[in-house]
Structure formats: structure tokens, C-alpha cells
Amino acid sequence: MSDLKQELKEKIITQLNLEDIAIEEIADNDSLFGDGLGLDSIDALELIVMLDKDYGIKLTDPKEGKKIFESIEVMANYITQHRTK
Amino acid sequence: MKAQDLKIKEYCRISNNRVLLNDQLLYEDQGTDFNTFIKLAYKKMDTNYPKFFKMDDLSKLGFLASDILLKPITQDSEISKNIALVFSNSASSLKTDRKHQGSIVDKENYFPSPAVFVYTLPNICLGEISIKHRLYSENSFFIFNHFNAGYLHDYASSLIKTNKADEVLCGWINCDAEDYEAFLYLVSTEGSIAHNKEEIIKLYTTK
Q: Rounded to whole angstroms, how far apart are CA atoms B22 and B31?
């Protein structure tokens, strides 16, 4: 699980172009949106694509993302339970 | 107001890995590709705007050139300035269009990126600039075969003469494959350079 969390932090920084943020600055329970990392709606769509492409998880309702992308901790738990690759 | 009363207040060029303001060199780095150069130039210009890194190359280029000209005007002002944006180029958003196409060409590996797709229009660049500088002004992005000084001159003059704008940020922002070029100038009632087709061409061709 801790490897997956590290992997997610790396992917989020690289794929969402968060150039000014280091992996160490993202805590497992930090909010990814709003006052946390400050991700926006386009980032949310990128994360949905990432779940599909890298973990084989298809979200049919984008609103599901609101809960799943709450934090790295929540994302890692969800991916562990639902991944197909 | 007569067209001959209008002036070119300032102008900015980003090309050949150099950033110039009114022909004065602000930054140069000849040893890097565009991606590295534009990020280093962004940091050198002290442009604190993390969303910059999410933009496509065309928007990064237009955003940085605009920021150099607009920051002194807008950064300390609470009131939105009526500065219109009139940009042009020949490649539209082709560089990003190709990137998007590359992500959808294989039906077995079909993962288009929303963050790339949103930049498959050149005028998105104008939106990025308007958001940063709180502009609610007129904006247009024209596609020409070549830099069209006459059209930009007439359009900017018309916007100011008809009170649609107080000033107009005009120019050419082009980006395709490895080539890029930004040339922007601010048309105003202040300044020392006459705003006419000949002066615009002279400034554009002096590289």
C-alpha cells in the first residue's frame, strides 16, 4: 500500500504538471482539491483517465471521483479494492 | 480620437531562446529546448503563477510575453483594466492538436488527455491571460498566413476609437514543432512610437 501511495504521488505530480510541489510535501491525508493541493476540474478528469489507463478502473459517473480523489489515502484504498491491472 | 494619436507604448519579443522588452534583453539561454527555456524564463521573470506549468506551449508563450507587458499595469490595481487582446498566428493550436491526435489514433490504446484537449483552440491562450490579469475585455485570435500588421493596426485602432477598449495588446504568437515566436505590443494613447503599419512592421522585423 505504501508503494502505491508513493506511486500515486509521483503520477499526480508528473501527469498534472505540479512543478512546484515535491513528493515529500504531499501527506497521505492531504486534500487533493480545494485548500489542499489545489487541483481543479480538469485535473479531476485527468485522474479519471489515469484510473482507467493505469489501473483498469472505469468510473461511469464523474461524481464518484469527488469521494475517491479526496486524498492519496482514499485513492490508494479504492484502487487496491477495484483495480483490474 | 484620431488614429494618428495612438502610440505603441511597449513591445515584447520571445524567440530564439531570448526574451526582449523594447529591444532590451531580459533573459537568454541558448543551450536548452523550448520546454526548458520557457520554464527558466518564467522563473527569471518572477511570474508566480503555478497554472503556467499546466498550459500548452502556445499558451505558455503568449502568457509569458503578455505578463511582461501587463504585470506593471495590472498587478497593483484592484480595478479591472479595459485592455483588449488581439492575437494572431499561422499555426493555430496545431502543436497541441497533433498531441491530442496522437492520443486517439490507436483505438486499442485510446486515452485522450482532458488537460491536452482543453488547449486545442488558440484562443484558450487569451483566456489564460484574461484570468491572470482580471481582464473582461474584447479579445480575438486571428489565423493568417503571415504576420499581418495592417489588419492588426486597423483592428486595434477601431477598438480604441469606438471606446471598446482603452488599450490593446496586439501581436503574433506562433508555435509549431520546434519553431516558436512571440511578438506583442501594447497600443495606447501613451508612448513614443507612432502606431502605424510601417512602425509595426519595423518592430516585428527587427530581431
A: 24
Can you read off the three cell numbers belonging to residue B82?
Answer: 479595459
Structural domain count, chain B: 1
- Among the partner residues B50, B53, B113, nearest to A49 by beta-carbon distance: B113
Residues 6+ apart with CB under 8 A from B24: none
Q: How far apart are CA B31 and CA B3, in angstroms?
A: 43
Find the CB nearest A46 among B50, B53, B113.
B113
Interface contact flag, A20 B113, Cβ < 8 Å: no
Helix (H, G, I), strand (E, B) or coil at A16: coil
CA distance to partner chain A, nearest, from residue B52 (Å):
9
Distance from the Cα of A7 to chain B's closest Cα (Å) equals 19
Write phi, then psi, for A31 (nearest 5 degrees): -65, 135
Query: In this structure, what CATH number is given to the domain that contains residue A27?
Result: 1.10.1200.10
Domain that holds residue A58: 2-82
Is B31 at the interface with chain A, CB within 8 A?
Answer: no
**Residue in B40, B113, B116, B118 to test binding to A, most A beta-carbons within 10 Å:** B113
pLDDT tens track of chain B, all 207 residues?
A: 666 689 999 999 999 999 999 999 999 999 999 999 999 999 999 888 989 999 999 999 999 999 999 999 998 888 889 999 999 999 999 999 999 999 999 988 899 999 999 999 999 999 999 999 999 999 999 999 999 999 999 999 999 999 999 999 999 999 998 899 999 999 999 999 999 999 999 999 987
* Residue whose cell numbers read 469606438: B162
Domain housing B162:
3-93+122-205
How far is C-alpha B141 from the geometric centre of its chain's CA atoms?
Answer: 10
ipTM for the complex shown: 0.86
